Amino acid sequence: MDKDRISGAANKAKGAVKDAVGSATGDTKTQAEGKMDKAKGSAQSAAGGVKDAARNATDKAKG
């Protein structure tokens, strides 16, 4: 698994926690930070997926 995918999953998890805590406590700043972390994690995971697909295509082409 690509390191971007791992980082992405970690950021999504961290963001989910911040979002939930912010929502539960009424802390809109923490909630917004959580949403940003989740978005960052999704982008990292997508980038990792693209890298994995490109690597797999290259490996297939080589033989």
TrEMBL record:
Q: Which residues form the CsbD-like domain?
A: 4-55
Basic and acidic residues compositional bias, start-end: 30-40, 52-63
Annotated coiled-coil segments of the chain: none
The record ties this protein, via InterPro entries, to:
CsbD, UPF0337_stress_rsp, YjbJ_sf
**Positions of region (Disordered):** 1-63
**Protein family:** Belongs to the UPF0337 (CsbD) family.
- Name-wise, this protein is CsbD family protein
